[in-house]
Amino acid sequence: MWQTIIVALIVAAALLHFSTKYLPAGVRRAIVRGLVRCGLDEAKMSTFFKVAPGCGSGCGSCGSCDSPPPPATPPADGSSKRVILMQVQRQD
Fold it and tell me: What pTM was computed for the model?
């Protein structure tokens, strides 16, 4: 019986570690939203799952609402073209 409890705790800890580190950011945000709906603190859960808190939290830490976007600067040489190098592999 103790072995089952210990294995369950190890699996739960591994799942928690996996979900905070290796899941895509969108899935982690969805987990944070679900936990916030259950009554947990959004700032703590966002920090724990390593995602930025939502803009609805009113924290003001991202500064996205306060500052205007940076102006787009043209290249220094005046050209607006980008060169994309491609390697072609031909099979004989």
Answer: 0.50
Name the CA dihedral angle for 36, 37, 39, 41, rounded to a multiple of 10 degrees: 10
Buried b (16+ CB within 10 A) or exposed e, 43-52: eebbebbebe
Confirm if 49 and 32 have CB atoms less than 8 A apart: yes
CA distance 17 to 1: 25
**Dist. CA 53–CA 59, nearest whole Å:** 8
CB 53 within 8 A of CB 43: yes
Query: What own/partner pairs with CB < 8 Å and gap ≥ 24 does 54-57 have?
Result: 54/29
4 pLDDT above the threshold of 90: yes
pLDDT tens digits along 32-47: 899 899 988 888 888 8
